[in-house]
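Two entries, shown back to back:
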Amino acid sequence: MLYQGQMENSPAPDSNANRGNLKRKRSSSDASANESTSPDLASRPLVNPVLHTSHESSVTTPLTSISRVLALPVELRLELYRHLFQNSQLDIHRRNMMLIDPNDEFSVYSLVRNVDLSILNSCSFLRDEAIPSLNASTVLNIFNHFRQSDPLANLPDDFLMGVRTIQVEVNAFLHIDRTRLPLLRQVNLIHEVEGLESFVQTVATMVNATDPVNASMQDVIDWRWKLKQFAHLGAEEGFTVNMTVMWDCYSEGPETRLDMDLDLMSGMLVGLKGLIGNKEVAVIDAQQAVLDWEMYGAEEPDESIAE
């Protein structure tokens, strides 16, 4: 049976994490690694890319703020960490993985995005206490750029041991060593289709297609069998598995696509929605797609499709 060797050694956790956002953002994921590789972290900032809300913000935390945080009960500090890190993401692609310093276990945090990491530079006590929460909150976005190799091979074990949620191309999931992810709770499988039609044209094609799911998954070999195997793996190893096809549409304006949620055991379509920029719209028919595109997308809708 597929993956038998891995299943025998994998733990079976018993809880689920919230499903992460499936949005791909390759263009925003490039970050620079720390310039220093010294193992002595007490004398240097831990991370570089910190999101600030004003020009007065500093990478380091004022001593008065540190004292106030330290004075909080540990339960409140842990809740604070969960709030600070709730949107944390790490994009796994070759460029980012090349920036990880194998001699510096903390260099991976320079690549984390959508989060303010200034608390890690406050003091060693808060840093060590906060890092497990950061690891657990960070969603890994794993793109299919690694062929037959493990896309997580360059990530340190201490970081991966706390990861709970991954979003991964269906073909890349085959090559991940899950024994390095003992707390994995949520796997969001995705498959991207690069469409050549506009949003309205794609909706028209989708609603009139005899088998849109098979058409979107045709370049994944044995995809129905694979999805069933992934469902069995999740049940045995203790993580939840979802599957979404992301059908990108041609657009000179906002990024647009259709998201198709599939049932793993049957391979049937169980959910369908459209995205025009950051706006989620229902996929009903081409006429509704024209109205949605007119409101959220283009200045001149393609009305000919709806006729």
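entry 2 starts here
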Amino acid sequence: MFPINEYLCHCCLSCRPPHAAFSISVGSSSLARELFTIFDTGQPSVQISDPTPPTISETSTSPSISIAGKNPATLQVGDTYTDLGAIVTDSQGHYLSYRTFINGMLSGNILIDTSQVATDTIDYVVTDTWGNTSTSTVIVVAPATPKPAPAP
């Protein structure tokens, strides 16, 4: 429910008969905007005021990327790599989505070929509302070390 404020208009001291004005505001106290005011002058009328957009402070601080899991991630040839992702926030603590690149190629799913010896990179890239960009990289290594034989 919107707060409704009733008050006498500025000219009520001289108006006869006096009339009331009503306003409806939306938002918190710091972002409240008067949507319209209705004056009861005995004749139907509504005055609609232009809304004032909220002010959002711009920042030059880059977003924060916190990689989940080990970095570098070392596997054996033939193992399966499971990416644990990242937690990304802007300077005001809002969670952001990110894009991932495997070896420089945009990738929606993180799939690493571990069938052979290789070193791969996973880049997490984020850009916030103000255009600040951050990148963090995970290195996935499948070294030439043989996989240990299973115990008998």
